[in-house]
Design goal:
Length: 459
């Protein structure tokens, strides 16, 4: 049987199983270690709380074991649609310093440049990412751990921003709708009563990253009268608070609409919600498809071997390749079953390396028709969600033309002669130059993106 090549040419965490609405999220606390290096220490967030005491965690320092108070219920709402059998989101935590926004169009949001005393103290920023959720939350921990049976620090979720579609895939010419939700909890009743009743004004911006820069596509400031930059590429945002309770908490919507997308609009999108002296930002990866590459199999037989080529990346450390099966009989996400292996590294003259990841899927059933095999690549030079390429599984059934069991007529029309003759290629090329080849950046690698998609059926 011939093998099918799924080429993910990209030069360019920990994940554990989690059920829906998880009780605990394992994180890494990231801080500056000096000399341009970062140090990571284990941390955990206790989200779901019952009458029982939190479980002891002797492996964690009390200031990194957080029991989160979430008056808006946003964190639990964010996980309500999370698949039970999906890997846990990647989670990082770091210190955060409240500051006024630097953009001129947001100057009316913070007329006083000095932060109010109510914002003094320690702040933490938590970022979570997975194929099903991208979330950022600003936490305000209490100064002292609570002497419960397990030493734990109480923390309040003040500003939370999230999306349920962090990796949308849109066909060329269709409209892209990127959902965004957020919530804000006033710090204390005293702080809330010092302000006018109702939700505060806010700013919302959407940017697309290109060659390391964020290009502004849309900026809005509901509740303010200042001028904002004109929207680009026909972008529109549904930006508003969902409620007008006098003292909060408040939830809001910042969903982004981009009409009739083109291949040049594919890439990383940054959504930022600005409140006075507080900002929450999440990342989305928009993929634009021209067609769906296919792989064929008969019921009870295994599809051809899948090959995922990861080329010209640097450094060689930190690469992870995951195989996923999306859809299928239950319409859910799961890790793809089957035999998998990696090739040896191939070294190139410019110092970059390549390798190939292989998957031999098990025999399929007719109920799996339309499911998608995906190869997802993680690397330190990539966004947290990584990059992925996929093929759609077509399971042969009863032909509508000749009434026999066999390949359906669309495959015959494509000129395929036998199982395994279909080949799908997706190229997303990233060229990463090692430090020796990057004259302008002597200490880190330099990466340039050029995205192309090519699909073909080969006889």
């Amino acid at each position: 049987m011939k093998r099918v090549s799924l080429l993910l040419a990209v030069a360019l965490g920990l994940a554990t199983a989690v059920s829906a609405r998880p009780a605990v999220i394992e994180c890494w606390f990231v801080e500056d270690a000096g000399g341009g290096k970062l140090a990571k220490k284990p941390a955990a967030l206790l989200l779901r709380q019952g009458a029982e005491s939190p479980p002891p965690r002797p492996d964690l320092a009390p200031e990194r074991y957080l029991k989160v108070h979430d008056p808006a219920g946003t964190l639990q709402a964010a996980f309500r649609q999370y698949p039970r059998d999906a890997p846990a989101p990647r989670c990082e935590m770091s210190l955060y310093v409240p500051l006024p926004a630097s953009a001129k169009w947001l100057s009316d949001l913070t007329p006083e440049q000095s932060c109010p005393r109510a914002l003094d103290g320690t702040w933490l920023m938590v970022s979570m990412s997975s194929p099903f959720l991208s979330l950022s939350s600003l936490l305000r921990p209490q100064s002292e751990p609570q002497p419960e049976p397990a030493l734990i620090t109480m923390a309040t979720a003040v500003l939370t921003v999230f999306t349920h579609t962090p990796t949308p895939r849109i066909r060329i010419g269709q409209d892209a709708l990127l959902d965004l939700s957020f919530a804000y909890v006033p710090l204390t009743p005293k702080a809330a009563t010092s302000l006018a009743p109702g939700p505060p004004p806010f700013g919302l911006e959407w940017r697309r990253q290109h060659l390391g820069k964020g290009h502004l596509l849309l900026a809005v400031t509901p509740g303010l009268n200042g001028q904002v930059p004109a929207a680009r590429e026909g972008a529109v945002a549904f930006a508003a608070w969902d409620d007008d309770e006098p003292w909060g908490p408040w939830t809001g919507n910042g969903t982004f609409w981009l009409p009739a997308v083109k291949p040049s609009q594919e890439g990383t999108y940054l959504a930022t919600v600005h409140l006075p002296y507080l900002q929450g930002q999440i990342t989305l990866e928009l993929a634009i498809n021209s067609s769906s590459p296919l792989v064929w199999a008969a019921p009870g037989e295994a599809p051809p071997e899948l090959l995922c080529l990861v080329s010209h990346f640097y450094p060689s450390q930190g690469l992870e390749v995951e195989w996923e099966l999306r859809g299928g009989p239950e319409g859910r996400f799961q890790k793809a079953e089957g035999q998998r292996w990696l090739s040896a590294l191939r070294h190139h003259s410019d110092g970059s390396v390549s390798l190939s990841a292989h998957l031999q899927p098990p025999p399929v059933t007719s109920e799996q028709h339309g499911a998608r095999y995906a190869c997802r690549v993680h690397h330190p030079s990539l966004p947290a969600l990584g990059r992925s390429a996929e093929v759609t599984l077509q399971v042969a059934g009863k032909s509508l033309v000749d009434g026999e069991m066999g390949w359906a007529s669309p495959l015959k029309d494509a000129g395929a002669k036998a199982l395994g003759a279909a080949s799908a290629r997706l190229k997303i090329h990233r060229k990463c130059y090692p430090p020796s080849a990057a004259t302008s950046v002597p200490t880190t690698s330099t990466c340039l993106w050029t995205d192309h998609e090519h699909f073909a059926l080969l006889s």
